[in-house]
Amino acid sequence: MKGGHKYLIEAMEHLKKQHTDIFCVIVGSGFLKAALEDQITAAGLEESVFLAGGRPHEEIPVWMNACDVFVLPSLNEGNPTVMFECLGCGKPFVGTDVGGIGEIIEPERNGLLCLPRDPECLAMAIAAALEREWDASEITEFSSRYSWVNVVREILEIYRGMDE
């Protein structure tokens, strides 16, 4: 099975052994849905993992703000928009250190990272993130440096500097 959600579900198997009250919602749609449903059933996680399916874009902030920790178990990425959205909601990010994610996520400040395809590490990172008191306002403030206005401002400064 392609995709990192397989490892998130495996991480949930580890987490359920010590955190009986944990609940995971996976938002999104795609060709992996049936395989993920089968994996959830085989692991006995029907009461712990919910596949919400594809949701309208305007609904995403509601789902994101309802979480305690946002998890993105990607196998490859650039700089995913959803990471910036999560940080903008003041939510800690737990994910894999792929692509540009490691350049943005500062462990202990706004999230935790682990290697891809490592459900045990992912489970430990999720557990650690859930146990920690995060400063939502600090996370939100950090994310503001990546607003479109600030990104455009930085790009313009680079181009203006090329004239010198």
Explained architecture:
This protein is an alpha/beta fold and 164 residues long. It is built from 8 helices and 5 strands. Helix 4 links the parallel strand 3 and strand 4. The longest helix has 15 residues, at 148-162. The termini are far apart.
CATH class: Alpha Beta
Helix content: 40-55%
Shape: elongated
Order of helices and strands: HEHEHEHEHEHHH
CATH architecture: 3-Layer(aba) Sandwich
Number of helical segments with 4 or more residues: 8
Give the radius of gyration. 17 Å
Task: Give a short overview.
About 45% of the residues lie in helices and about 10% in strands. By secondary structure, the protein is α/β, with parallel strands linked by helices. The protein has a single domain (about 5-160), classed as 3-Layer(aba) Sandwich (Rossmann fold), CATH 3.40.50.
